[in-house]
Design a protein that fits this description.
alpha/beta, three-stranded parallel sheet, eight-stranded parallel sheet, TIM Barrel, binds FE2/S2 (inorganic) cluster, 356 residues, binds 5'-deoxyadenosine
């Protein structure tokens, strides 16, 4: 066990063993990951103020509450003014970075609008706010245009790196194409974005071997950032039919923590987010993720009136909290676990900074 926790290069068998640990052995893994994080990085937590720009989406992924086929969702797009207010709020709260997330659209009106907003946010913050985009699959030209406008990080989760599993949680059609998604990730890496990907944990049909392969995928792609969180079944989606066949909430939470911990051993210098979904399953979920090796949190800045419409999964945390409440809440919560929030900084991934 100790040998495994100190091994230089973990192979697939090692990963499966580590992901299968329970009880005190699991605790030892999490403690080792924290030790590695503190050694290679520090106890700083980076913030990305999250702006949920729009829930209009051309896709209908089988797990997602805002899928286009869910007609119970009230669709919205934030106005330019609302987006700029969010950015200003990020500045006022000393968040060094924001992340703009949205349902996927690829029409020119949308992609042009994003370019315009990225430029406007750069200007408003005098270049001080880091900008992460999470706007799905786009053409190389669009990714380039946004990069040139000033976005420097991009998140595109692969969701499941096993193609077969991918098609069990997505429709199999031209809008949900595994190879296309892979090639988008490659394009983002090529263009020079700090690129992040990730998966959901505790999906129906998912095995521990799949999860080990997900970790190998992150290492093979040499990504700068990873976001992983537990799957939470949403009633208005097809995968809800399997809600009684997935691991319990506690098991999904523990598996998420083990995934974070093992990845921290494998890629000590990447940025890893403690997902909001962690807090939905466990009131202390984000703290636990930070203690297992994560170093980024994405507090929500979306105007409260729209948050109810961005329920990708049910019971999302903080939906009723004002941005300034989340800010002070997080500060206290991180101090309670001997971590410190890094304000007024982009918080780039050390893995990326060193290799560029
Ligand atoms: N449970 C957990 N995470 C989900 N996501 C989408 N639907 C769910 C769900 N039901 C995640 C996906 C997506 C991110 C924005 O949210 O991984 O990339
Ligand atoms: Fe939102 Fe604590 S982070 S209330």
């Amino acid at each position: 066990m100790e040998e495994l926790l100190h091994k230089d290069f973990l192979e697939k068998d090692d990963l499966v063993r580590l992901l299968s640990l329970q009880g005190d052995d699991m605790k030892r893994l999490l403690a080792r990951a924290l030790e590695v994080k503190l050694k290679y990085l520090d106890n700083k937590v980076h913030l990305r103020g999250l702006i949920e720009y729009s829930n209009i989406c051309r896709k209908y992924c089988l797990y997602c509450g805002v899928r286009s086929l869910n007609d119970k969702v009230h669709r919205y797009v934030l106005t330019d003014e609302e987006v700029l207010d969010c950015a200003q709020q990020a500045m006022d709260l000393h968040y060094g970075s924001i992340a703009i997330q949205s349902g996927e659209r690829s029409d020119k009106a949308f992609t042009d609008k994003i370019t315009e907003l990225v430029r406007a946010i750069k200007k408003l913050s005098d270049g001080k706010l880091g900008i992460t985009l999470s706007l799905g699959e786009q053409s190389e030209e669009v990714y380039r245009e946004w990069f040139e406008a000033g976005a420097h990080r991009y998140l595109l989760r692969i969701e499941a790196s096993n193609e077969e599993l991918y098609y069990r949680i997505h429709p199999h059609d031209e809008r949900h194409d595994f190879q296309q998604r892979l090639s988008c990730i490659d394009t983002l890496l090529k263009l020079g974005y700090q690129t992040g990907t990730g998966v959901m944990i505790g999906l129906p049909f998912q095995t521990v071997e799949d999860l080990a392969d997900d970790l190998l995928f992150f290492r093979r792609k040499n990504v700068a950032m990873v976001g992983m969180g537990p799957f939470i079944p949403h009633q208005e989606t097809p995968l809800y039919a399997y809600a009684d066949q997935i691991p319990s909430a506690q098991d999904r939470m523990n598996m998420t923590l083990k995934m974070i911990a093992v990845l921290r051993l494998m890629m000590p210098e990447i940025n890893m987010v403690a997902a909001t979904a962690d807090q939905t399953l466990d009131p202390m979920g984000r703290e636990k993720a930070i203690m297992a090796g994560a170093n980024v949190i994405m507090p929500n800045l979306t105007p409260n009136s729209h948050r109810e419409d961005y329920l990708i999964y049910p019971d999302k945390a903080c939906v009723g909290d004002k941005p300034e409440e989340c800010s002070s809440c997080l500060d206290i919560r991180m101090r309670a676990i001997q971590h410190e929030i890094l304000y007024d900084a982009w918080g780039d991934s050390l893995a990326f900074t060193k290799s560029h």
